[in-house]
Amino acid sequence: MMADTRATKAVRAAGAGTAGEPVDAPPAIVFDRVGVAYGRGKKATAALVDFNLRVAAGETVALLGPSGSGKSTALNALAGFVRPTTGAVRLGGRDVTDLSPARRGIGVVLQSYALFPHMRVAENVAFGLKSRRTPRGEITARVDEALTMVGMAGFEKRLPRELSGGQQQRVAIARALAIRPGVLLLDEPLAALDAQLRQSMLAELQRLKEALPDTAMLYVTHDQGEALALADRIVVMNQARLTDVGTAKDLWSRPPTSFTAAFLGGANLIPCTVGRVIGTSALVSVAHQTVSAEAPQPAVGRVDWAPGSKALLCIRPHVIKVVGLGDRNALRARVNAAVWRGASTRLVVSVHGLPDQLLDVDVPGAVSYDLGTEIGLRFPEPAGVLVQSP
Amino acid sequence: MPPLVIVLLVAVYPLIRVCLESVTGVGTQSSWGSVLSSEAFGDALWRTVAIAATATLGCLVLGTFLAVVLAFVPFPGSRLVGRLVDTVLALPSFLVTLAFTFLYGTAGAVNAAIAGVTGDRAPAVNFLYTPAGVIAAEITFFTPFVIRPLMASFSMLPRAQLNVAASLGASPLRVLRSVVMPEAWPALTAGGSLVLLLTLNEFGIVLFTGAKGVTTLPVLIYTRGIVSFDLPGAAVIATVQIALSLALYGVYRMVFARLMTQRGRAGTDVAVEPSQ
């Protein structure tokens, strides 16, 4: 419940517009307390609950969350593929809640590409233009323009099955862009691609974003890397609700909730007791030691970090240092697992004084430890950020 | 090996005997030349093809309409209608004709109702004993053979394609015409081929209707073989019928194989639940 309130307030704060946008211009996208439920009566399942969001023209917002968190449902409600059971959807100030998808003027790119298999690339891209009765002479130019934009010029006569996954996704993007939409929806567009292709397409999307400064983009993903790379703001969703919203940097460095802290970057969340608090700094007691931590306040509202209260200390795995056991203030820990991950090695350790708590620690390079090895850990200064216990 | 022998013995050998009988029949006044050049054969062949083609066309139009409605237009009881379509497939064809007799016959319910309103005892609806009656009965009975493959094809169509088409500004009719039907074309062709094959060989409906002057190839075979005891003559016509059927069956298999290949390529997020 608190997450909703916090999120709604944050959205209101962020909804005033972005740089360069007139203050009185209506947001490109508005979700106004949108709810979606499937089924009726006792069998009804809430897929989206009380969802509020404003996206300015030219802004890219990522909806990030695990499967079933409601992010695709939000996108479907915006596109008109599902009818909200409550609330309203507005595009450029116009209420489109009851409008058919065909009359919303939104470009949609889906994970499965959804290219029309019997149409050639040029026909796929021209489909929207023909549906909108664009003059024939203009269609050719717009198709060429869209295909050039995604680097697919020269593939006009190919059938979708003659293209690779990445090429098909480029055509799907070109098809969505050809109608020059004010709003572009991307639902897990890179999920079906292999890791290497995903990175290259991510760079393409970043370039595309720069090339479309007036287009609002809503990007649904469960991959935090994509969200961090592309989004001006990230909306974190969980259990059909908006949990947190903010810039990627803010959510990463000062996650408002434990869910966001864990989902965005997989932070360690260590139970601690708040001691002295001065401004936005605090001393907290963790594993029989006292360490300093940030005690942030949200943009709207206030969190009371009262001395003696329980909280969670959010520490990213890569900031924890492995030191010798004799090191001053070192926390004593035992290695439970060590997994080499290329650029770093992920250690899973249990810390003395923190029963039932495993910490993730990232050590640069390839490091090998015998299981059960005793090591020392040192937190940075400040150790991390305080997050309210759920 | 034994299964092959059984199939050859039970299914293929009788057909071969029919073909052989057409050229080696003893004591016959018929020959290939005389049968094929006879007016009765020409009329029957023309009538058979005309009825089969018209009925198939009717099945394609009605079947496509019903399949689209059942697949894409949600309405209460659509599942029940789907089940009823399956039920028709399980019934013998002559039952449709019998039902038509009760409904549209000269003493049927429709004529009785019209007579009750107008007072005129002469049957107002009197098409059942004409080629139109046979065609109507065949359309009624064979339309499910078009609906089923079409529904299967629609169930393989990714819902994402329909959503994207709609988001690009396409009206439902344009989505149907430009996205759905091109994908369903192999299913439509397969269903149409099957119906053409079945209507070409249909015997029960034509015989049960008793339509005056409606003699198709199967009826002519029956008349020659059973009524006139001209077995070699019947064998000649039967051989023509077998050749027609096998040719059509070949086309049907070819189209069906293409449909199956498409089905293998289809995604999982489908527009219509397969259970419908």
Brief summary:
The complex is a heterodimer of chains A (390) and B (276). With 390 residues, chain A is an alpha+beta fold. Chain A has helices at residues 2-14, 71-79, 121-131, 136-149, 165-178, 195-211, 224-230, 248-253, 258-263; strands spanning 29-38, 45-55, 60-64, 86-91, 94-95, 106-110, 183-187, 216-221, 233-238, 241-247, 268-278, 281-286, 289-294, 310-315, 321-323, 331-340, 344-351, 358-364, 374-378, 384-388.
Which properties best describe this structure?
heterodimer; A: alpha+beta; Rossmann fold; OB fold (Dihydrolipoamide Acetyltransferase, E2P); disordered N terminus; B: 276 residues; MetI-like fold; 0% strand
Query: What letter string, H or E per element, gives the SSE order of chain A?
Result: HEEEHEEEHHHEHEHEEHHEEEEEEEEEE
Please report the first level of CATH classification, the CATH class of chain B.
Mainly Alpha
The total of beta strands of chain B comes to 0
Structural class of chain A: alpha+beta
CATH architecture of the largest domain in chain A: 3-Layer(aba) Sandwich
Strand content of chain B: under 5%
Q: From the 3D structure, determine the CATH topology of chain B.
A: MetI-like fold
CATH architecture of chain B: Orthogonal Bundle
Oligomer: heterodimer
Poorly predicted runs of chain A are 1-21
Approximately how much helix is present in the residues of chain A? 10-25%
- Give me the Rg of chain A, rounded: 24 Å
Structural class by sheet pairing and helices of chain B: mainly alpha
Helix content of chain B: over 70%
- What is the helix/strand order of chain B? HHHHHHHHHHHHH
Total number of domains of chain A: 2
> Considering the protein shown, what is the CATH homologous superfamily of chain B?
MetI-like
The average pLDDT score of chain B comes to 85
CATH superfamily of the largest domain in chain A: P-loop containing nucleotide triphosphate hydrolases
